[in-house]
Amino acid sequence: MSQSVRLLKSKKHIRMGGTAPGSHSIDLPLMFNKMLSTKFQVVSGYQPPHPFEFLGFVLGEGIVILTFALMLSTRVAGMVGGVIAAILFGIAWMGGIVGGVGAAFHNATITNVGTLTKLILPTPELRRSSSTLMYVGCISSTKSWHCVLPR
Predict the structure, then answer these.
(1) Packing angle between helix 78-104 and helix 108-120, nearest 10 degrees?
(2) 138-140: strand order across its sheet
(3) Nearby residues of 8 by Cβ (< 8 Å), 6 or more positions away
(4) What is the pTM of this model?
(5) CA distance 101 to 129
(6) What is the mean pLDDT of the chain?
């Protein structure tokens, strides 16, 4: 059992930082408290640590998908190139989810399928990185705060 699952199943109160009431960074822990009987204590007023890097990743995602669509449009009709790019974006997004499921269940074949889709079109990985930069949380199971920052 992973350390995070053990921490959630324990009876310890876990303090989490959220942006503002009504945001998912506050609503999700409160929902987990009701549905899964977790012990999250949510503190509002948390400010995202890397807003400019987040914008860079989101812009990068748009540039990658636009460049891919324009590249396809040099070989096929413009509308067809855009549709193909959109379909491949969806396939890459689903492949990222499949890869995560494969990693969770320790299935190398499914994990490799997810890795292959990331290599074809890396936009879901850019989105995941941007989300990590924007919504990284501060948690505490003692009296001191620990902010988990991406590496």
Answers:
(1) 150
(2) 40-44, 14-18, 138-140, 146-147
(3) 14, 36, 38
(4) 0.58
(5) 18
(6) 78
